[in-house]
Amino acid sequence: MTTAGSNAKNGKVRRDHAVIADMIEPSSRVLDVGCGDGALLVMLRDEKQVDARGVELSQLGVNHCVANGLSVIQGDADSDLSDYPDDVFDYVILSQTLQATRRPKVVLEEMLRIGKKAVVSIPNFGHWRIRLQLLFLGRMPVTRGLSSQWYETQNIHFCTIRDFVDLSKTLGAHIEQAVALDQSGGPIRMRAPWWFWNLFGEQAVFLLTRKD
To answer: Which of 10, 31, 7, 9 is nearest to 20 (CA)?
Structure first.
C-alpha cells in the first residue's frame, strides 16, 4: 500500500495541498479538520516541521493517519470544534470539506475562534463547466473536482468563490491571501476580479484572519 507520506515524496501532491502548505509558517501549531488520510499533515510535518494534529470523521482515515505517526482523533467538524479553547492553534485547516458540513458558517466561526488563522480550500460551483452542464443538460454536474453523482455525494452545501467571499465578510473575517486554481491546477493571476475567478477557477484556497 502506498502511504500518504510516500505519495508526497513521489510528487503526487494535491494541488490545493501545495498551495495550503505555502501559506503555513514553519514550526506552527496546526489542526487539519477533516484530514482524511493525513497526506497534508504528513507534508506539513516533514517539510514545515509543524506541530501537526488532525480531526477526521472516518475511523479508516484515523487509522491510516495514526499508522503514519500522526496525532489524529476521530471527530465531527460540525460538533467537536467547540471543545477546543480559544487561539490554541496558529492555523486551522479545512481542505475541500466545507461543502460536506451541515453548518458551514458555524464551522468557520469555530475555526477562527480556535485558530489565529484559518485556511480553507473549496471546489467552486460557479465554474463555467458546471454552469454549462446545468444550462444545457439540466442535470447536477459531474466534473473532475465534483466526481460523484448527486445521489452519492457527501456534499450538501455547494458554494461558489463569490459565495465564500460574501460569507467571509458576514463573519467579519479578513481575507489575508487567496489563490484560485484553474482546471489544470495552475494559479489564476492574482489581480483578476472575483467574477473572473468565479467563472474560471475550479477551486480556491483562502487564508483568513479575524478582524480586530
So the answer is: 31
CB-based burial, 145-160: b 16+ in 10 Å, e otherwise: bbeeeeeeeebeebbb
Q: Judge residue 161's burial from the number of C-beta atoms within 10 Å of its C-beta, 0-12 exposed, 13-18 middle, 19 or more buried.
A: buried
Contact 179, 208 (CB under 8 A): no
Element spanning 5, H or E: helix 4-9
Q: Across the strands, what pairs with 122?
A: 204
Query: What would the grid cell of residue 13 be?
Result: 501532491
Strands of 173-181's sheet in order across = 71-74, 51-56, 29-33, 89-95, 115-123, 203-210, 173-181
Average pLDDT of the chain to the nearest whole number: 89
Identify the structural domains of the chain with CATH numbers, from first to last: 4-210 (3.40.50.150)
- The 10s digit of each residue's pLDDT in 102-121 is 999 999 999 999 999 999 99
Question: Which residue numbers in the chain have pLDDT < 50?
Answer: 1-10
What is the spatial distance between Cα 62 and Cα 106, in angstroms, rounded to a whole number? 24
The CA angle 190-191-197, to the nearest 5 degrees, is: 70
Q: Three cell numbers at 105?
A: 458558517
